[in-house]
Design brief:
The protein has one domain: Outer membrane efflux proteins (OEP). The protein has 12 helices and 6 strands. It is elongated, with a radius of gyration of 39 Å. The protein starts with a helix and ends with a helix.
């Protein structure tokens, strides 16, 4: 009986272990590189942009087709249903057959149409280049969003750890307070104060975990995955420390605001897309002016018609010709198209200026954020050291009875706040780095 009971306990433990392993295996763990790679193909905005590229490629094929001749073939069959009605029209006693057949083959080639097709082909190529550059910029924007959201996840994960460690410390302190109260060393108010403080620490954990879960869901959604997925994110994508050498090297890499703007104008895909969009608008303007030019086209073909399927050489007809179409008055349609194309060109030029102004604003903001993050790192480091020393002092004074528990709890709260401030400063600097690199086109 004991042996059977031991075996059942062993089997139950084994099943629990397997279930635990299965649950652990169900958690998907992503590194920063994983997040970036997945988002490059599964992000919904990226997928839409890739579909637009396929449409633009088809437009180029259509533009190339305007340089080729058009061909068409036709075949016809008809049968007279009113036999008596047809018989009344007989001439010389001859009634035409009820069936009739026809065949035709036609070709048409535009020789000249005011350079409209040349402008159309140029515009289609420019539009494809615009979409390619916009797609690159979209991918960079998604990468920057991934960086920001990944940093937010790591920041909140670190805060959760600090909150949990702080609660464990509070629980241990509560046990000591109860023991000291049982020995008659401290009053019961110390227990109440510690319990109330532990309640606040538990609330802080709940809030921190909620922020962490929201950050994870947002990151998963940006990656193009299910936001409700059970996922975790490793810390391998970020270094643990920021030394003075790292600060100096990145400062040297960043340079001045003007240097950032110059790199951005030269490298950023949205600037390249804006320049190409201007060229596409110019091609549209050239195409719209073609309405003032004559159109010259050549045509040719073969046709056949008979009451029976025979005598193709007798009733067949081959033909070629030229057609000249000179516009005299088109109800101001061409003028309207020119004005619309000129407006689109002006709009593209203004948009280019707007993008450059946005880059200048972003560069100014990014440099200010970097300077602020550097100062936060220095201040947070000093504040954490002071808070740690203050907590040790308050702990010693409380242990010997020269300080109240409220003094100790206040010092502990200040230490936890200083630790969280240092975490925020660390990740604020990482985010400022990513922002600088994104703006300068080198993320």
């Amino acid at each position: 009986m004991n042996l059977q009971r031991c075996f059942l306990l062993f089997l139950f433990g084994l099943l629990c272990r397997v279930e635990s392993v299965a649950q652990i295996g169900a958690v998907a763990v992503y590194s920063l590189d994983d997040c970036l790679k997945i988002s490059s193909s599964k992000n919904l905005d990226v997928q839409v942009a890739q579909a637009q590229l396929q449409t633009a490629a088809a437009d180029i094929t259509g533009a190339f087709g305007t340089f080729l001749p058009s061909l068409s073939a036709n075949a016809g069959y008809s049968r007279r249903l009113n036999e008596q009605g047809g018989a009344q029209l007989n001439v010389g006693g001859f009634a035409p057959p009820s069936n009739s057949y026809s065949l035709g083959l036609n070709a048409n080639y535009v020789i000249f149409n005011g350079f409209s097709r040349e402008a159309y082909y140029d515009r289609a190529q420019k539009n494809l280049s615009v979409l390619e550059s916009s797609n690159i910029q979209l991918n960079n924007q998604v990468r920057f969003n991934i960086w920001q959201q990944y940093i937010a996840v790591q920041r909140n994960a670190q805060i959760v750890k600090i909150r949990q460690e702080n609660l464990e410390i509070g629980k241990k302190q509560l046990e000591r307070s109860r023991a000291r109260y049982g020995a008659g060393v401290v009053p019961v108010t110390d227990i109440y104060a510690q319990e109330a403080d532990n309640g606040s620490r538990e609330l802080d954990i709940v809030q921190a975990e909620n922020q962490l879960n929201n950050a994870k869901a947002q990151l998963l959604a940006t990656m193009g995955l299910d936001p409700a997925q059970n996922a975790d994110f490793s810390e391998s994508g970020l270094t643990a420390e920021i030394s003075d050498e790292v600060l100096r090297n990145f400062r040297d890499e960043t340079g001045s605001i003007d240097a950032i703007i110059q790199r951005a104008v030269a490298k950023r895909s949205d600037i390249i897309a804006a320049d190409t969009r201007i060229e596409a608008a110019q091609a549209t303007l050239r195409s719209s002016r073609s309405g003032y030019f004559p159109t010259v086209s050549a045509f040719g073909g073969w046709s056949w018609s008979n009451y029976e399927i025979s005598d193709f050489d007798k009733f067949g007809r081959s033909f070629i010709g030229l057609n000249l179409n000179v516009p005299i008055f088109d109800n101001f349609s061409t003028n309207t198209q020119i004005e619309t194309a000129a407006f689109q060109l002006k709009q593209a030029q203004i948009e280019r200026v707007r993008i450059e102004q946005t880059i200048r604003t972003q560069a100014q903001s990014a440099v200010l954020n970097l300077v602020s993050a550097e100062k936060q790192l220095e201040v947070a480091k000093r504040a954490l050291k002071s808070a740690e020393l203050n907590l040790k002092s308050a702990q010693e004074r409380f242990n010997v009875g020269t300080a109240q528990i409220t003094d100790y709890l206040l010092a502990n709260t200040q230490f936890a706040t200083a630790a969280i401030n240092q975490i925020n400063a660390f990740f604020a600097y990482r985010e400022a780095q990513a922002q600088i690199r994104f703006i300068s086109g080198s993320l």
